[in-house]
Predict the structure.
Amino acid sequence: MYFQRLRDLREDADMNQTEVAKLLFTSQTVYSRYERGVLTIPVEHLIILADYYGVSTDYILGRTNNRSML
């Protein structure tokens, strides 16, 4: 699965892949693979990113267009 929303959220926050990778304590290469759908993003990383960007995990996963965490 390709996570366009991961890239969109990152770019909206004016961050590069290396900065997001540091937030997740992983490498830029691994994070790039999440964005491209080569690797499945671990739940722990998904939660960190949802909290950081202030959106729901369902929004990141494309299960809803509602960004709200409620």
The chain has one domain: 4-61. The CA atoms of residues 18 and 28 lie 5 Å apart.
